[in-house]
Amino acid sequence: MRNICMTVSYDGTAYNGFQIQPKGRTIQGEIEKVLLILTGETIKIHGSGRTDAGVHARSQVFHFHTESQIPVERWAIALNSRLPDDIVILSAEEKHLDFHSRRSAKRKTYRYSIRTGKYPNVFTRHFEFHHYSPLNTEAMRSALSHVIGEHDFTTFTSIHSTKQSHVRTIYEAKLVVEDDVIHTYFTGNGFLYNMVRIIMGTLMKIGEGKIKADDMPSILAACDRSKAGPKAMAHGLTLWSVEYEFTDIPVTLAEQARG
């Protein structure tokens, strides 16, 4: 038995999320269909986490077990020749059988992108939320600083969350402005259902002047979803990276922002 670990990048626009659903196309479903063709095995892949419908990934990690003897250096080419154009395998490597893409992950980074201004950009519209009016980015930065650290993020998760604990640690949170686009990066040990999108919806209300930046600590401490802003649209969110103990020195957020 072999344990193959892969990194995949995808445009989530046309998909009902990463994980297989009763209805609709999913990233997992498309990959598993190709694995069946390549190996003749019914393989279930295990992702480092879920992404919602319409959410993208620059670097999602998954693993699977197989008896196939396809050389590890051939896996990415073999899958990419059969996958849809909006799903691309970036790398493949063989791991010990005890490696698990989700349980072994140490840090994840998400990026949320907002384009401000009168008009959206037709070429990047699937990856940026268009906010037609200016936002106070300094107020947003000030509020953002309060989510760093270990907190109970009940305020910033869906009321339908099934997790026993809503305590998570945000190691870094940074807002970067590039021309008319605001990129916000969150790096943490894990994220709750809709957590980044609800934080971003709250930050946009702060940027609009409808919530005060100084209110962020009390909003967080309330552990009450009704105290936060609306959930931001899915298409502005990208799973940026997943880090493991075997990775190199982590890239800084400033380096990530430069691409």
Automatic annotation (TrEMBL):
Residues annotated for substrate binding in this entry: Y110
One function term, GO molecular function aspect: RNA binding
Domain Pseudouridine synthase I TruA alpha/beta, first and last residues per copy: 8-102, 143-245
Enzyme Commission numbers on file: 5.4.99.12
Keywords: Isomerase, tRNA processing
SUPFAM superfamilies for this protein: Pseudouridine synthase
Keyword Membrane: no
Record GO biological process: tRNA pseudouridine synthesis
Catalytic activity: uridine(38/39/40) in tRNA = pseudouridine(38/39/40) in tRNA
Keyword match Transmembrane: no
InterPro entries reported in the protein's UniProt record: PsdUridine_synth_cat_dom_sf, PsdUridine_synth_TruA, PsdUridine_synth_TruA_a/b_dom, PsdUridine_synth_TruA_C, TruA/RsuA/RluB/E/F_N
Active site (record annotation): D52
Description of how the protein assembles with itself and partners: Homodimer.
Family, similarity comment: Belongs to the tRNA pseudouridine synthase TruA family.
Function: Formation of pseudouridine at positions 38, 39 and 40 in the anticodon stem and loop of transfer RNAs.
The protein's name: tRNA pseudouridine synthase A
